[in-house]
Amino acid sequence: MDTKTTKKNYTLPIIIMFALFFMIAFVTGYQNPLGNVIKELTGGSKLMSQLGNLANFIAYAVMGIPAGKLLEKYGYRVTALTAVSVGFLGVLITYLSGFGNNVVIYLVGAFVAGFSMCMLNTVVNPMLNSLGSNPNKSNQLIQFGGACNSLGATLAPVVVGYILGGAATDIASVNPVFYLSMGIFAIAFIVLFFSKLPESPELGKVKESVKVSGAFRYRNFTLGVIAIFFYVGIEVGIANISLQYISENAVVKENNAGDPEVIAGAVVGMYWLLMLVGRLVGGIVGNKVSSRSMLAFVASVGLVFVALGICLPENNIVPLLGIEKDGGFSFSIVNLPVNVLFFVLCGLCTSVMWGAIYNLSVNGLGKFTAVASGVFMCLVCGGGILPAIQGWIADMSSVLTSFWLVFGLIAYLLFYAVAGSRFSGVRD
Questions:
Q1: Pairing of strands 330-337, 317-324
Q2: Range of 83's domain?
Q3: Which of 62, 142, 259, 324 has the fewest CB within 10 Å, making it most exposed?
Q4: Is 57:385 a contact under the CB 8 Å cutoff?
Q5: Could you read off the pLDDT of 129-185 as tens digits, one per residue?
């Protein structure tokens, strides 16, 4: 091995990947509070509120494998540049949907933006994973990247909720967010274009075509893609359906003077903030604690939190930190059902799941890692499909009942951590 390679300083590439992690979450995150606008425009239900989120995540199913192939053939830099260009286009289309409140154009924009998020995820995860000197160090880098992801997810609902104010029915109301997103994508393109990113060690080597099916010969990967499908559905479902719950809950309206939509955005922002805290902690301890132990612990605690959130009486009121619209971003205490407290606390558990699952799933894959990352991205569509199913369950029964779906999905993650993720070599 070239000793010069091992001495390279990868601080800049790591910072760039962390910044891209932020953009993935911010552009994905504003679909959540905008769901209230889409619901009003369509005169629909909680299911209709998830349309933008669904379009954004379904793009992963379409683009996942092509993104993996793009990464395998052209490497990190070209894939990242393509991704931010597509991201700019997606946000631009979403912005144009505000002229006439065209929901179809809005959904097209969300779908195109989803292509970008998929390609960015395909780059940042394997790149950070490869920059680690050992599996625990790789997990640590992904956890710190996840902290940046959580920061973007924290800001998105708070910023959009603040801009929307009350029950807005105008997509153009969020134009400042679209301007900001397009500007960040433009800056990201310039920085990436003039930066020198380390490439995959497999890039440029003469080798036989790597088939996607080869990755599925590894049991830990096969069960891992199911785990990531479930995980993204858990993460997004808790946030999105909790937002709907807070926005429409009579107890919230009776015990608070502010707009329920603003309160909901602020409280859901706290969920993402706890994910930020959890990922920072995960990043600190990630070099000492195995991904398997980390995932098993948070899945167990998550099951307890969700069960309490479902079963406790809604008329038990607890004070939670919120953000008032009047006078700017001033913090205040809002009174919410205790159920919300435990759903928000789930952010501490979901925080480290992505990095742990990815790390366990690609363990031992070797030359299949790039295409496996593409398959991984396909299954991120669970973040659109499963919350839509949860929204449908909420329409058919109740919001709290819909969280039993989340409980079952977390139970699978506990199984994966304990047994399904153990590397057993290649299956015949």
A1: antiparallel
A2: 9-201+212-420
A3: 62
A4: yes
A5: 666 656 667 767 777 777 787 777 777 766 776 666 655 667 787 788 788 888 888
